[in-house]
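Exercise 3.2. Students should predict the tertiary structure of the chain below and write it as structure tokens, then compare their answer with the key that follows.

Predict this chain's 3D structure.
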Amino acid sequence: MFIQVIQSKSTRRDEVRALIEEWGNLPDEGFGFLGGTYGFTDNDEFIGVVRFESKEKAMANSARPETDAMAKRMAELMDGPPEFHDCDDVTMWGEGGSDDAGFVQIIQGKTDDPDRLKQVMTDDTDNLRQQRPDIIGGTSAFEDDGTFTTTIAFTDEASAREGEKNSPPPEEFQTLMRDLKYFDLRDPWFASA
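Answer key:
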């Protein structure tokens, strides 16, 4: 799997969402689009986490004239230049994402030990599901320099907040991650192939 993360500030939420939905209706034509998770934070940060079968198919999709035209239109809706993260090192855990998630939290940061972080994330998902039934699953996408973007699908925000209080993540998580930024998508939307 390959993940491309797109993010930028935008106060034109309705127009961005309409464009993303239009983009999702383009014929795939074998470019390997698997799905996407999208939303805005309370302070107008747009984030899209788009999943493809492979990096090669994602790059071929990016090279299409239709994709280029959509990307230009999207850039016009942003308050600044969009930031991109291309990740072909992807770990899925739990049930992965879910189009039924009522709340999505995206965590970006750095790690010096991506392999250990991936292992800790996937070691005991059955126990995680018992302790945190509010967590449906997620994906973690890593760049070569240790930058990561983790997307966590929750049933709803109230349950997620309660779960944070009652069952914090294992201490080892804290030692493996640094420079963390949290992006709460309270009204996420999704696209599937």
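Discussion points: Residues 128 and 135 are 8 Å apart (CA to CA). Residues 65-77 form the longest helix (13 residues).
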